Amino acid sequence: MEINLISDTVTKPTKGMIDFMLTCEVGDDVFKEDPTVNKLEKKVAELFNMERALFFPSGTMTNQTAIKINTNPGDQLICSKTAHIYNYEGGGVSFNSGVSCKLIDRERGFFNADDVLNTINPPDFYHSPKTSLVCVENTTNKGGGACWELHDLKEIKQVCKKNNLKFHLDGARIWNAAVKKNQDFFEFGNLFDTISVCLSKGLGCPVGSLLLCSEKDYSEAIRIRKVFGGGMRQSGYLAACGLYALDNNIKRLSDDHDRALEISMVLKELSFVKKVEEVETNIIIFEIHQKHNPDSFIDILKNKGVKLIAMGDNKLRLVTHMEYTQNHHEYFLDLLRNISL
Ligand SMILES: *Cc1c(COP(=O)(O)O)cnc(C)c1O
């Protein structure tokens, strides 16, 4: 048995996806002449009710492009201290945009409208950086796959409007959030200036992300994508995977969520597990007691064919995905129940 629960990015394209990929027409997308890329961009823009979408090679590049569009050098953005843009994009916020981050320290990657209000630098106080952007993540990755409530996002949006701030959504796993909470994608489109979404996580594509934005921001985004080296040629083959995934792989995410919840319930019963974060979607973060070494737990599981990742502070992470089948699930739950550290 080979079970990789390190991330939902480990999935390989299925036969159905590859077959569909091979039927698609391609062209040179740098000249905007790839019909499959154009089709994907139109489909995703419509899904979120936003004016335009632009296809990118990675979620990091879509986030970084959005930050570049929404800020000027010297500005400051507001985000959670667990945010992907702050922790896992190689310092791109400062490298690419000359922007700093003001962090909000709340549980699970969330914050509220008051937190934002209290974090904005006074615009006439020219000694401090100008606050120009608020970024939220849905689902929250380091926060353990938690989902935002729409009314919280709406309240933050009001603060952004009143204070002339742009509002960006890092929606790498927005599909998981919408399925879990039964939300319509256009609800997010109505709230944010820019949204980045990933195809290469729960949806099972090999590569790909899209930036959703207004017509005006689109012309800026395509220029910045070029500057970042993200203009691709016959990328229709990759976009085809996205079209296939949108039609076939969204609804099934609830299987990943159900399995993650079941894993978390088994973990809670284990004597060496100190705490399991509440599971909402496909990410399980749990902590083992201080007297145990997380690396030895990782090794034991590895010897039984299961891979997972350490997150520091005696915390570990598991992520369920398309390739984690019911068979794998039953094997893994059994393994967990019988493990001793
Ligand atoms: C995965 C991820 C991204 C994008 O990462 P890439 O590896 O560049 O595609 C952005 N934000 C969050 C929250 C993510 O989990």
Q: How is this structure best described in words?
A:
The strands form three sheets. Strands 2-8-7-6-5-3-4 form a seven-stranded mixed sheet, with helices on both faces. Helix content is 42%, strand content 18%. Helix 1 crosses helix 11, helix 3 crosses helix 10 (215-227) and helix 6 (113-119) packs parallel to helix 7. It has 14 helices and 13 strands. Pyridoxal-5'-phosphate (PLP) is lined by residues 58-60, 63, 84, 137, 141, 170, 172, 198, 200, 209.
| Class inferred from helices and paired strands | alpha/beta
Number of helices: 14
Task: Tell me the total number of β-strands.
Answer: 13
CATH homology superfamily name of the largest domain: Type I PLP-dependent aspartate aminotransferase-like (Major domain)
Uncertain spans = none
Number of domain modules? 2
Radius of gyration: 20 Å
The percentage of residues in β strands lies in 15-25%
Topology (elements, then pairings):
Blueprint: E1 3-4, H1 15-23, H2 35-48, E2 52-56, H3 59-70, E3 76-80, H4 84-87, H5 92-97, E4 100-104, H6 113-119, E5 131-137, H7 150-162, E6 166-171, H8 174-181, H9 185-189, E7 194-198, E8 209-213, H10 215-227, H11 236-248, H12 253-268, E9 273-276, E10 283-288, H13 294-303, E11 306-307, E12 309-312, E13 315-319, H14 326-337
Parallel strand pairs: 1-11, 3-4, 3-5, 5-6, 6-7
Antiparallel strand pairs: 2-8, 7-8, 9-10, 10-13, 12-13
The protein binds pyridoxal-5'-phosphate.
Pick out its properties:
341 residues, alpha/beta, Aspartate Aminotransferase, domain 2, Aspartate Aminotransferase, domain 1, 2 domains, seven-stranded mixed sheet, four-stranded antiparallel sheet, 14 helices, 13 strands, binds pyridoxal-5'-phosphate
